[in-house]
Design goal:
heterodimer, A: about 425 residues, alpha/beta, TIM Barrel, 9-stranded mixed beta sheet, 5-stranded parallel beta sheet, 11 helices, globular, B: about 325 residues, Rossmann fold, 4-stranded parallel beta sheet, 9 strands, Dihydroorotase (chain A)
């Protein structure tokens, strides 16, 4: 696996002057190794391999939507070298057994470092803590805990979870959604929800939980990570918490950086997602928050669903969108082309910081001699029209179908071994 | 009318709306005949697809289609494969295979009719017979027809729509259509039952009923579901009735010519008192009768009617 050596010619690391990179034995080397394969990277941007804090791989339980293998192939195609597999599988990843299974499947697939996320509460039920320590001590070495899809709405339980994970340097990643304010909610609450007759999902339902949780994080001195924040108010609260030095981090999804609720006018469930698509003002705010570092990371919330889960009425459709294979392009469109982030900034928000938040060793490091050779090469001048059928993911519920997006992943290296070459996933 | 579907009154231009109302006026004359039937849609199939109980609306559409000589198939969620978990898509494909020319759909989910019309499952015309808390366009058309009949015109008239606007498809369809036809609309409801952003709708709104009544040409009372008070939208039925119900004393605040409307079914004693419901101002039964004429017009126009709906075809005996 680490046997192949590479000379990467003319890559612009973090968008700087082009230079040659050398890879051997899974790490970046000082000089050209003998017999190395040559990769022409003329015009390409080189970034450390991307790290996703929020991926639904669906295995075990929903292998009709995605498997660890298909999901990590999609991740590699999108330039990722590590993904955090969310806990809402069936059975739920709330025991050492399940997280070790997912971790092992990831190792066997060999396309990404798969970091299982452990459930905070048993069965995601929000009633009592799952065996967090057992998952932390398992071979999967879980450090991120989340009931994603469900909010740990009980304040006392959230407090204890935050305190408890301090024992092993864990972080609680909260899906911020006040349940009583969002019963039956279908889309962002605003003028449009009123017109469309779809029950509103108010911003305050997200913001109230984030406000409570940042205060709990401060009180307990524990690490809180805010999943997929989506409103201007949420950005403000996190900005305030960081200004006070609270141990809080946050992520935003690509779709909340680009898409707005106006797409819902035709009731096409491909746009149904949790949290919901918000207003243009919210999109502006999350972009600004990502640019100034209030939001630490872009996380895909890649949520594959089979065709029938979306080929139906809005109210009965599943929530979620696939995003691994389009994340980088959306970030290029929304953050790089707008001048809000340079490529070094992209590397920081999509690799370095998420790796730090997830305590992922060997990922999110700099492209420098001796460091693990986790790398993505991007052709920023490429443009592609997104075709759902051409995705590597087993599911095709992309909101970008037919949209022209900039940039293309040309090569992905995982610990010095190519998972993507010439823009295609390498078969193994 | 160049449209293939009727999904929302927001899609109707003034000309579209007037064409439907004028056609309905023509067709209304059929109801007075001994033989209430026209051959216009002979050989065409209209499916009433009901995912939610509404005997009144279904019967109205069924009568309309039959008066135009269409074949009618009633397909309801109860007692059919829909209740056994068949998807909307599969139901649609089945109807398509059976050769439905028009599907009249009532669905509990907002956007149900939009999905049926636009998901690429079927080619037939879709008529929205009520989708969730979104729209009920033929109700608004029959209300406009009734207003025209009683008041002579819709343009320039002031209409109050009172009650649970938040959950009302009737209110949404009426706001769009009445605005298009040039009426002035005021929504009256407690703040809990007005949608967020209502200030951007083409109408005014008020939390109080009494100051609005003296300037109204028509008051449209919306049905209020009793369960709403369990979700804290209002404290008790009595309080709702006191603040927003229409009783005889409050009706006296209306100008002499003003009418009282209700889409039915009424909660007598809650949003409307029996005295008001049975008064000469009440248009409730006319609304039901007009519903048939308006739905005849909609089916006729969507299924390709280009000329006068009844033409010279007296008693439907030509040919």
């Amino acid at each position: 696996m680490s046997g192949t050596s590479y000379v990467i010619k003319g890559a612009r690391v973090l968008g700087e002057e082009s230079r040659d990179l050398y890879v051997s034995d899974g790490a970046f080397a000082e000089a050209a190794p003998r017999g190395a394969k040559v990769i022409d990277a003329d015009g390409c941007i080189a970034l450390p391999g991307l790290v996703d804090l929020h991926t639904h791989l669906r295995e075990p339980g929903r292998e009709d939507a995605e498997t660890v293998l298909t999901g990590t192939r999609a991740a590699a195609a999108g330039g990722f070298t590590a993904v955090h597999a969310m806990a809402n599988t069936d059975p739920v990843a709330d025991t050492a057994g399940v997280v070790e299974q997912v971790w092992r499947l990831g190792r066997e697939a060999g396309y990404c470092d798969v970091r299982p996320v452990g459930a905070v509460t048993a069965g995601l039920k929000g009633e009592r803590l799952a065996e967090l320590g057992a998952m932390a001590d398992s071979a999967a070495r879980v450090r991120v805990f989340s009931d994603d899809g469900h909010c740990v709405s009980d304040a006392a339980l959230m407090r204890r979870a935050l305190e408890y994970v301090k024992a092993f340097g864990g972080v609680v990643a909260q899906h911020a959604q006040e349940p009583r304010l969002t019963e039956g909610a279908q889309m962002n609450e605003g003028e449009l929800s009123g017109v469309l007759g779809l029950q509103g999902w108010p911003a305050v339902a997200e913001e109230a939980i984030i406000a409570r949780d940042v205060l709990l994080a401060a009180h307990t001195g524990s690490k809180l990570h805010v999943c997929h924040l989506s409103t201007a108010g949420s950005v403000e609260i996190v900005r305030w918490a960081k200004s006070r030095g609270y141990p809080v981090t946050a992520e935003v999804t690509p779709h909340h950086l680009l898409l707005t609720e106006d797409l819902i006018r035709g009731y096409d469930p491909v746009y149904k997602v949790n949290p919901p698509l918000r207003s243009a003002a919210d999109v502006e705010a999350v972009r600004a928050g990502l640019a100034d570092g209030t939001i630490d990371a872009v996380a895909t919330d890649h949520a594959p669903h089979p065709v029938e889960a979306k080929d139906c009425e809005w109210a009965v459709a599943a929530m979620g969108m696939v995003g691994l294979e389009t994340a980088l392009s959306v970030v290029q469109r929304t953050m790089v082309e707008t001048g809000l982030l340079d490529w070094a900034g992209v590397a920081d928000r999509m690799s370095a910081r998420p790796a730090r938040i997830g305590s992922v060793t060997g990922q999110g490091r700099s492209v420098a001699t001796g460091e693990p050779a986790n790398l993505v090469l991007i052709d920023p001048a490429a443009a592609r029209v997104i075709e759902p059928g051409a995705l590597y993911s087993l599911s095709h519920n992309t909101p970008y179908a037919g949209m022209k997006l900039p940039g293309a992943v040309v090569v992905t290296l995982l610990h010095g071994s190519a998972t993507v070459l010439d823009g295609r996933v390498v078969e193994r | 009318m160049a449209k293939r579907h009727l999904l929302s009154t927001a899609d109707l231009t003034v000309d579209d709306a007037n064409l439907i109302l004028d056609t309905a006026q023509e067709l209304a004359s059929v109801a007075g005949r001994a033989i209430k039937k026209l051959p216009t849609l002979r050989g065409r199939t209209v499916v009433n697809l009901f995912f939610e109980d509404s005997t009144r609306t279904r019967i109205s559409f069924e009568t309309a289609a039959k008066r135009l000589s269409a074949d009618v198939i009633n397909f309801s969620a109860k007692g059919s494969s829909v209740s056994k978990g068949e998807s909307l898509k599969d139901t649609a494909l089945t109807l398509e295979a059976m050769g439905a020319d028009a599907v009249v759909v009532r669905h509990w989910a907002s956007g149900g009719a939009h999905r049926l019309a636009n998901a690429g499952w079927i080619r037939s015309s879709v008529v929205n017979a009520g989708d969730g808390t979104h729209e009920h366009p033929t109700q608004a058309l029959l209300d406009a027809f009734t207003l025209r009949q009683r008041l002579g015109s819709v343009a320039g008239r002031h209409v109050a729509i009172v009650g649970d606007v938040l959950h009302s498809r009737v209110a949404r369809s009426n706001v769009h259509l009445l605005a298009t036809l040039g009426a002035e609309v005021t929504l009256v409801a407690p703040p809990t039952l007005l949608p967020l952003g209502v200030e951007h709708w083409p109408c005014a709104s008020s939390y109080e009923l009494d100051p609005i009544l003296p300037k109204c040409d028509a008051v449209m009372m919306l049905r209020v579901q009793r369960e709403r008070m369990n979700q804290a939208f209002f404290p008790t039925e009595r309080e709702y009735s006191r603040r927003y119900g229409l009783q005889a004393a409050r009706m006296a605040l209306l100008p002499q010519h003003a009418v009282v409307m209700h889409p039915g079914p009424m909660n007598r004693g809650l949003e409307i008192s029996a005295e008001v419901a049975d008064s000469v101002r009440s248009t409730v039964t006319e609304q039901v009768a007009n519903g048939v004429s308006v739905r005849m017009a909609v089916l006729y126009l969507l299924l390709g009617g280009a000329e006068s709906a009844i033409g010279n075809d007296e008693e439907g005996s030509a040919r």
